[in-house]
Each structure stands twice: as structure tokens, then as C-alpha cells.
């Protein structure tokens, strides 16, 4: 009898471990993210079934019981769901303002970016001297570029978060891919570019600190600054699930918050939470 009970317990444990996890949510994460997560799930027998078709549709599926876990993006001002749901940030969409490494400029404000990029700007910042730069860079033209809508959410995040109105100047170079943007700014002396993230290998470029206003402190897009809200441009991706499903989802949640998953998020041009915050969330999940 005891042997039968032990075998039954082992069978039930295996069944739970291999239970299907229906994961829904934002289509902004992209095809590469979906492919990589599906491959990881298959290798590790996690049973994740992915349907990243949009946050609104995903939330409806969660509420109707047709999904177990969501990776959601809520628009600014949109209120995340309350109990019985648990809502935890897991990574951030953001952008980096990038210039040549030799340019003697370390930071920039929303207002200055609006003047450089925004079609509604009343006066232009045409040369680097207009931003207080001296020396050999002073008389060089500021040549603005941005990765376009085909390169992810950066284009719209910049237009609707940083600019006073979402229209760009006709002189802004809208590049089709991140690679094209990097090529353009490396080739154009005096260039400035808005990218999803600064690739680690770009030693000839640097990321400017960004401040919302002229009197505000400027910050860079580090995991710590994004998570604290100090960097002024971020759009969180949230884990959303019912509290009573936390135990069933432990394996998947721990992976998405783990150091092992960092390349998954970075490959989708997102910044994961700092490791201390992720470790704290993993600990907190144990007691839900």
C-alpha cells in the first residue's frame, strides 16, 4: 500500500512539473524572443505554450481562464490589474541617445532632443556649439538619426515620450534597422542617434545621460536607473498571473527572472531588472 502511494505521489509530481503553461501577452517582444523562449521550454520540458498576440488580448485570456501567465505591456496611464492578480516588472523597453565617443558632451535634455528631432520646434539646434560644445566639434552640424518602426518600439517610445508632438523633422534620418542606424552615425561626423540599446561592442560611440528638464539630474539607461525610475524613458514588461497559480508557475517564473534569461531579454532589446531586484522577487515568490 505504501509503495502504491509513493508511486502515485511520484506520478502526480511529474504530471504537475510537466503541466502546460499557457503564456500570453505583448506582441512587442518580437519573433526572436518567442522563438528563443519556445526553444528553451522544449529543451527543459517546461511545457510553455506561447501566444504573444498583444497585451489586451492576453489580459482577456487570463481573465477568462484561457491562459496562466502574461507578459504584459500597459500604456502610460493604464492601470495594471489588481487582486487576485500579481503584477511584477521583469524587464524594460527603453532607448539610448548615442553620439561619437570623442564628442565633448555628456548629457542632454528632453527639450534639447525635441528641438533637434521635433517638427514643431520653434528654433533649431543646428551645430554642436548650440549645445555649448567647444573645440573642433563646435561648428559641426548635428545630424539626427533614429531607428525606425521596423526596429521595434524605440521609434514610437521616443516620439510619444520625449517629443512635445510625435512628428519628426524631415531632416531626421529614419533608419530601417539598428545596424543601419549604427552605420550612419559612425559614418557621419557630428551625428546623434536614438537606438533601442547601445551594443556593447560599439567602442567608438557613447551613450548620453538624459534628463527630463534642464533643472533635473541626468541619468543613463542602466538596469538600476530604469528600475528606480530615474532614467526618464521606460516602458515596463510585467509578469501577470493569479496569486493562486504562483506555485504551478514557479519553474517558469524563476527562469524568466534568472540570470540565465538575461540574454533572452537583451536579444529582444529590453533591459532586465538588476540582479538584486530579480533575486528578491524570486525569494518573494516562494512565499506567495
From TrEMBL:
<protein>
    <submittedName>
        <fullName>Phosphate ABC transporter substrate-binding protein</fullName>
    </submittedName>
</protein>
<feature type="signal peptide">
    <location>
        <begin position="1"/>
        <end position="19"/>
    </location>
</feature>
<feature type="domain" description="PBP">
    <location>
        <begin position="21"/>
        <end position="260"/>
    </location>
</feature>
<dbReference type="InterPro" id="IPR024370">
    <property type="entry name" value="PBP_domain"/>
</dbReference>
<dbReference type="Pfam" id="PF12849">
    <property type="entry name" value="PBP_like_2"/>
</dbReference>
<dbReference type="InterPro" id="IPR050811">
    <property type="entry name" value="Phosphate_ABC_transporter"/>
</dbReference>
<keyword id="KW-0732">Signal</keyword>
